[in-house]
Specification:
It is a single chain. The protein has 15 helices and 20 strands. It is α/β, with parallel strands linked by helices. The protein has 2 domains: 281 residues, Aldehyde Dehydrogenase, Chain A, domain 1 (3-Layer(aba) Sandwich); 188 residues, Aldehyde Dehydrogenase, Chain A, domain 2 (3-Layer(aba) Sandwich), CATH 3.40.309.10. Strands 14-15-16-13-12-17-18 form a 7-stranded mixed sheet, sandwiched between helices. It has a 6-stranded mixed sheet with strand order 9-8-7-10-11-19, sandwiched between helices. Strands 5-6-20 form a 3-stranded antiparallel sheet, with no helix packed on it. Strand 5 and strand 6 form a beta hairpin.
């Protein structure tokens, strides 16, 4: 990756000038009048405009293109698909400066974190380029007959991929990578707040050799019409969605009409448990990453801090000290370590959750303000003495707010951690191996990080339990989500 160039006004203009601004269907950008504003959260002003596609008509065209390309794409060799994905991985790194700039500009994260997402997002393309040539299959003798059991796989078929705004590149590559590796064609619907990174990715995939119609991307403000149009079409065979649990429920209901395969990566409410045996310094460093990475706007972000009373004072003091060192500002500023939130509503939501906790007895130890000047900023905030009935205990925060609840018993900590309908991510801090393994084995969570502030890895299965979702992304399981299994009985 190249040395990070400064995001000067001239450079910003150059990046935007070479970034597509319309939907990508059938191997071409459709063009049209750019009227949908992309807002810079650091200023609240329009960064640029993109074409707001007609959800029904352009969505139908995109599915038509995907269906027309499906048979030929499925017939390509795994090696051919692998090499295309590998080239796309390489191009992401070659275009890292532009991709990182776009993510910072349209979503707000600090530029250093945006570069980190380029590496992370590109890695899904490399991982699934390697998985493409390792499709599963078996041949064995039937136990009770002179027959053979042949098990093969084939691609599910055309897929609808719906991605959120908080990780504009990696949420796309995490879905596109396995779909293409399996031999499925794709219609991508990126978040309307952050379409630019996805459109830049379309150009990269086309240059890498993805055939026309295999990958399509529709930018529209009418998400409801778009998804309902495609999901009502029996040619669509799978939908993969990352976003809120409320929207996920609606999509699952719609998927029943044609019994679509679904992958749902939904909301989170991650508990962060600091056990009696925790090394406090390790726990604080993990907490800073788990809470404030990506401006706190992550479904895996630590949401509820349950700290054992024996280490509570030291942990709280050190967390406050480290939080005060964060630098709030525009993501384009190299000094910034905490950028703006996505919009004004996001700031208001954090404020409401904080106010509710304070009304119920919580204390603001640091932060609490919304910053000064333009843009959608919220200070990194730590709350102490947060009661169990506060809204932050049951609602996803999606911002830089760390609520601490002190508990006297590990059993009580486990019960509090599991007292939610969500189950995506959990964090456990402790040095006693027996204590840690006993706790992790009882947490109702799809992912658990031990003494770490992050666990996401393209080679590992990502997904939740309970109302945090269905299916897994990444690892071997991620490819399986896009494959159907066929059993053939053969006489011997």
């Amino acid at each position: 990756m190249s040395q990070q160039p400064a995001l000067t006004p001239t450079r910003i203009a150059e990046v935007l000038e070479r970034t597509p601004t319309s939907s990508f269907v059938g191997g071409r950008f459709l063009g049209g009048t750019a009227a949908l504003e992309v807002i810079d959260p650091a200023t609240g002003a329009a960064l640029t405009r993109v074409v707001d596609a007609d959800a029904a008509s352009v969505g139908a065209k995109a599915l038509d293109a995907a269906c027309a390309a499906q048979e030929e794409w499925a017939a390509t060799t795994p090696r051919e698909r692998s090499e295309i994905l590998r080239r796309a991985y390489e191009l992401c790194h070659e275009r890292a400066d532009d991709l990182a700039a776009l993510m910072t500009l349209e979503m707000g994260k600090p530029l250093a974190e945006a570069y980190g997402e380029v590496s992370y997002g590109a890695e899904f393309l490399r991982w699934f380029s390697e998985e493409a040539v390792r499709e599963p299959g078996r041949f064995r003798h039937a136990p009770a007959a002179d027959h053979a059991v042949l098990t093969t796989v084939r691609p599910v078929g055309p897929t609808l991929l719906i991605t959120p705004w908080n990780f504009p590149l990696s949420m796309g590559t995490r879905k596109i990578g396995p779909a293409l590796a399996a031999g499925c064609t794709v219609v991508l619907k990126p978040a309307q707040k952050t379409p630019l990174t996805s459109l830049a990715l379309m150009a990269i995939l086309a240059e890498a050799g993805v055939p026309d119609g295999v990958v399509n991307c529709v930018v529209t403000s009418d998400s409801r019409t778009f998804s309902s149009t495609l999901m009502a079409d029996p040619r669509l065979r799978k939908v993969s969605f990352t976003g809120s649990t409320a929207v996920g429920r609606t999509l699952i209901e719609q998927s029943a009409q044609h019994v679509l395969r679904t992958s749902m990566e939904l909301g989170g409410n991650a508990p962060f448990l600091v056990l009696p045996s925790a090394d406090v310094e390790t726990a604080v460093e993990a907490a800073m990453l788990a809470k404030f990475r990506n401006n706190g706007e992550a479904c895996t972000a630590a949401n509820r801090f349950y700290v054992h009373s024996s280490v509570a004072e030291e942990f709280t003091d050190r967390l406050v000290e480290r939080t005060r060192q964060l630098v709030l500002g525009p993501g384009a500023d190299p000094a910034t370590t905490l950028g703006p939130l996505i919009d004004a509503a996001a700031v208001d939501s954090v404020q409401e959750l904080m106010a509710d906790a304070v009304e119920r007895g919580a204390k603001v130890l640091t932060g609490g303000g919304t910053g000064e000047g333009e843009g959608f900023f919220h200070e990194a905030t730590v709350l102490a003495d947060v009661p169990r009935d506060a809204r932050v205990q049951r609602e996803e925060i999606f911002g830089p707010l760390a609520p601490i609840t002190v508990l006297d018993d590990v059993e009580e900590m486990i019960a509090a951690a599991n007292a939610t309908e969500f189950g995506l991510m959990a964090y456990v801090m402790g040095e006693d191996l027996g204590e840690v393994t006993a706790v992790t084995g009882r947490l109702e969570s799809g992912i658990v990080a031990v003494n770490l502030g992050m666990a996401s890895d393209p080679s590992a299965p990502f997904g939740g339990v309970k109302e945090s979702g269905l299916g897994r992304e990444g690892s071997h399981e991620g490819l399986a989500e896009y494959l159907e299994t066929t059993y053939v009985r053969l006489p011997l």
